[in-house]
Amino acid sequence: MKLIARARKNFLHCSSLEGAAACATFFSLIFTCINLDINPVEYLTDALKKVASSHHTEHCSLVSRLWKERRAVEDDLAISGSSVQAAA
User: Fold this and answer.
1) DSSP 3-state assignment of 63?
2) Nearest to 30 by CA among 38, 40, 22, 39
3) CA distance 33 to 44
4) Structural domain spans, the chain
């Protein structure tokens, strides 16, 4: 609740409706990440890089819940790959 009150107070200083909308969008993304136990910085960094790249067309895969599932699979593959290398 304290974060919501702080955000509301910060919205008072937005210089335009577009700026307030952008700020609200980022707050929404950040709080969604927090609720899903995702590091918001890691998620936003990865998602913004993929959106900025012209070859990435599957924006649905950047939905935070799906992103978390994909990241878990990638982490499992990385762990199993390092186990195979260590055994060799």
Assistant:
1) coil
2) 40
3) 9
4) 1-35, 39-88
In tens, the pLDDT along 3-47 reads 666 666 666 777 788 888 888 888 889 989 999 999 999 999 988
- Listed in sequence order, the DSSP H helices in the chain are 2-11, 17-35, 40-52, 64-87
What separation in angstroms does the CA of 7 have from each of 16, 24, 30, 58? Answer: 16, 9, 12, 31
CA-wise closest residue to 7 among 34, 43, 47: 34
> Under a CB-based contact definition with an 8 Å cutoff, are residues 80 and 86 in contact?
no
The predicted pLDDT at position 25 comes to: 87
